[in-house]
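Researcher: Good morning. I'm working through a list of sequences from a screen, and I'd like to move beyond sequence-only analysis. For each chain I'm collecting a predicted structure so we can compare shapes side by side. This is the next one on the list. No need for commentary yet; just the structure.
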Amino acid sequence: MLVKIALASSSLYAVRALDVLERSTHEIVGFITMPDRPQGRSSRAKPNQFREWASRERGMIPCYAPDSADQLLEALRQMQADLVVTLAYGRLVKEEALEKPKYGWLNIHFSMLPRWRGAAPVQRSLLAGERESGVTIFKLDVGMDTGPIYRQRSYRYGEDECASEALDQMSLLGADELLRAIEMIEAGVEPTEQEGISNIAAKIAKDELRLILGLKTEEMMRQIRAFTSNPGVWFIYNGQRMIISKVKSSSEAVPSRDLVEHNGSLFLGTEDGSIEILRIIPEGKREMSGSEFVRGRDLKEATRIE
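Model: Good morning. Structure tokens for this chain:
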């Protein structure tokens, strides 16, 4: 059966779901995304990543950016979608809009609900030291990630895997499970109500991104993995901000809070060892490897960071 589908997102992770839907028997009738917002230091409004991608790569598909509940209803009326699939759309949807499509709204969520509800489930999971998470496909309701579940699949994090790497892999799993959820809807299968303890996966705050020094290796790795590579954890070296973009745990003995070069590699000391900084972005410069960073800098003697 052909289902007319609209995709609602403000994230590039939704492209994986779109790829799967475009290869299916279903029809994409439009996109819904957030309106342009000021980004960075400029006050000029800019499109989000998904809207920018959609206009460049799928310009023939209508893209709506409603700024109110009434505008969202009008967009749904024009698209005449049977189903809306959403992933990181960016706002709660009111009941009238949820009931507009024949089959409602399906959400792709990166947690084994109800474990982590909210904007940053993978980041909060890694920060809590969890080794596993998963993907949930559920029917959207007026609550925050509280709707009944169609499909779930677990995911085990790699040893030093960061949030952005995990999201890349989980978006693939979510795309696969999405088609199975649509098949369940077509077959008239009812979703299952959520059960269990939930936690709020709050949006990432700017003050969480400064590296907490004086921690043990595992604790420091949690913070770095959770917030890498976007937006990225940072520290101060020689008065400049350094953003960490890739690390791995290390047994190299380095004094806590010290940055040091050893055998051409870059290490940061923890309370019980060190982490190796594989990729770093110095303030005002491009991303580079740890070995590139140490060249031309005197790090034979340990340097205290802030």
